[in-house]
Each structure stands twice: as C-alpha cells, then as structure tokens.
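Supplementary Data S3. Sequence and structure tokens for construct A.
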Amino acid sequence: MEMQARGSTQPTESGHRVALVLGSGGARGYAHIGVIEALEARGYEIVAISGCSMGALVAGVFAAGKLEAYREWVCDLDYFDVLRLVDVTWSPMGAMRASKVMSKLESLIGDKRIEDLAVPVTTVATDLVRQREVWFQSGSLLQAIRASIAVPGIITPVHLGDQVLVDGGLMNPLPIIPTVSAQADFVLAVNATAHSPRPVSLQDLLPPAQAAREQAREEALEAEGHGFAGWIGGIRERAQRLFSGTADTLEEAGDAGTAPSDSQRAWGRLDMILASFDIAQGALAKYKVAGYPPDVLIEIPKTVCGAYEFHRAPALIDLGRHLALQALDRYEGRTGVGDMTSEQVSVVPRTPPSGDEPASS
C-alpha cells in the first residue's frame, strides 16, 4: 500500500487553521467528538486530521460529514444496546468481527473513499507481518477504519493482500507525524490513554452540573433494570463463550484455594488483554508526544472509564468539550480559566520536525 501525500489549500484566516490528532482509547475516544464540537464553536477550521483506533473512526465520520448523526446514535446506546453489538466469532485471530458496528457505519457514511473527503484524513493501522505502521490516505474509508480498530486478540484483523492489519495503537496510539506537514496554524492532539499519578474518575473531571447529570443518568438506568450490574453479567457470559476452548496450562486458584468459575476466568482474560493494551498505548503515546510535541495537548486519563464502557458516550463527549475549551482558553491566552492540572490539559511548545522519515507502507 502506497502512502500518498495529501495537500491542502492556503490558510484563509490566520491563527484558526488546526491539524487535529485523535488517539486511541476505546470508549474514551468519544471525547474526540466533544473536542471537535469545541473547535467548531470557537470558529476553528480543521484542515487535516489523523486518527488511530477510535480516533480513526471519529476522524473518518467527521470528514465524511456524518459526525452529528453518529453522535446521536452513540448517545442513545445503553448497556444492553452495546452488548447486542458484540458479535461473537470462533476465529483463532480474534473473538469479535465488529460487523454490526461496521454495518451501522456503512449506513451512515456509505462507500466513501478517503481521497474524496473534504478534509485530508490519515488513519493508522499496524501490519503484523512486516511489523510496521500502515497509513491509509486513500482507498475505502470503511476498510481503513475497520483495520485501525482491530484490537489484537479481541477484534479479528483485516487481511489486505499479504498484510494482516490490526489496531494502529499497537505501534502509534497518537499519530502526530501525519499532521506535521499540514498547512495549519497549530496542531492539537488528544491523548485518550494518558497516565495519571492517581485514579481520576469521569465525575472528577466534569463540571459539577454535568457530573451530577451523569450520576443521575447512571442511577436511572439502574432503577430501570438497565444498570451496570446486569450489563457486566451479560459481558461475562459473552466473554466465557469468547474464550472457551482455549487451553489453560496453569491452574488459576482463588485466595481460598478454589478455582474461580469459568465466567470469572474468561472475564479476567478479556479484562487483562484490554488493560495491558491500554498500558502499552499510554507509554507509547508519551514517546510520540516527546518526539513531535503538538501545540496543544489534551490528555484524558485512562482511569475515567474502561475501554469497553461505550454506554457512557454523552458524559465522555461533555468531557472532551470541557477539556478542549479549557485548552483553547490557555492557548489563546484567555484569563479566568479556572483550576486545571497538567494531567488534564497541557499547552506545550511546538518544535520543528527533526527530519525523520515517517513510517509508511
């Protein structure tokens, strides 16, 4: 697959052209929607966008002009809607096909090609065969998104020629390099796998009114019987099916000397895979930021929710908008921003590219 350079037009308004980088992070990637909303509300023009995993999905939907429709869909999902989207397969290369999610995306954006989009887009996947990044800057948008979201061992990979493509977060969870040549006034990156020195909840970061609204929403779902306890039970049952048939060479014993149930063991494996992937992506993202610091960096701690909590879209979108507005206040030199910590929002100096060649296929 050839990496094709994409040009952009000359700036139309000084200081208001932004190149946007949307990182991986599972459900936390819903915050990217709020970041885009904040940029547009402030009158910024997104002239280039790159994304990985959930960031690739949001980037593609935005560039296709369907972000509002996608937002409405995800905000209506409850625990059990998310569970119904889990399509189990028995493939040794992954536990889920993601075909239900991709069918919904196809109904939203159709069969668009990346090179025909109004905004230059780069989505990033990883080729397991050649052990390198693959940048999609042309071809089928749906295929590019599907390749970028294929979490190894969880979602089946995409086979393209002799390439076996999985989640780009395996090598580059925050793809800043594709944006450095864009004719933009500044680069804004959103790291949704950020490490924090202490656990930070979603309610900790939201403004009080929005935090209260999210708490009330969770309590209402519990009262209706659509709460987290029932949803976790369903996920555990699915997880047991996903991982049944795999050989266990080590006996897993509980504290009391008894082996845990199959559902507990299966859920532990799934949770361990996702948590391990989160940790690795968080560490890699720090290196990417150090190598090519963006002008504005928004960091969303990975403790705000699990990577699989896709039912929390409204609050995560609110969080993205809230943190983006704070970041833009600081970048624009506004006053009265309020309390912010470096774990939430950073504005860092831009350094010129070092001349390193970006990875490509």
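Construct B, processed identically:
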Amino acid sequence: MSATATGGSTGTMRILLAEDNADIARIVSFYLRNMRNAEVVVCRDGSEAIAAMTQQPVHLAVLDGSMPVADGLTVLHWMRGQQEHVNVPVIFLTANHAQTFADECLAAGAQLVMTKPFNPGLLVRQIRSLLVPGGPE
C-alpha cells in the first residue's frame, strides 16, 4: 500500500484507489494527485483496501471490479456493513462490460460504474461531483 498526498492537511479529501493493474493505478493516481486537496491511497487488492480503510476512513473509493484476494464487490459489501463507511461514495472501474455486473454494483451501493478503457478526465470530473456536490472543483 502506498499513499501520495497533495494539498494541505486541512480539508484534504482522502481517496482510496484499489486497482491490481499497475499501469491503470499509475494513470489514475496521476490524475487524482492533481486534484486540489486530494490524498490518494493506492491498494493492489481488496484486502489491502479493507485494511487501509480500517486504519483511516476515506471520503471516496475507486474500486476495480476484479482483483485478487477480494474483488471490488467484496470491498463494497464490507464498506456498506461498516458504520463509518456506509455512506462513502464508490466508483467502480471494471473490464466487465456486462450490464448485469453494473446493475449488481449499483444495487450494492456504488454511485457509478465505468468500464475500461475509460476517460481519466471524466473519472476526475465524476469524483469531484461526488465529493463536492453542486459542481466541479
């Protein structure tokens, strides 16, 4: 697990990224690090994501649909069972293009499902809209 912070500690939004593909994690991290007041915690699998959130709550989670140890849905179900994470917005990044998978993610409490390949700029705009309701940063 690694953390990268930008901005000051006051008003910092902690974003968890759980992604087992190193290239995708690097790309998403690059874009998220450029958000004002964002701290990004990168995890390689769902187990690391759960451990990271146990140590410190997050404001938003970006989860890969398919990861080793624990997949994104497992992490989301765990989050929704934890009082401190029950209302945390979740975005799925997935290579699974099946509508049934997207429906399952949304029914479990995800706010958005984006399929890979995806537009990183659109992902950042969606994150901003979820973290700062009413408009982009």
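The CA atoms of residues 66 and 72 lie 6 Å apart. Helices lie at 22-33, 46-55, 72-80, 99-108, 120-131.
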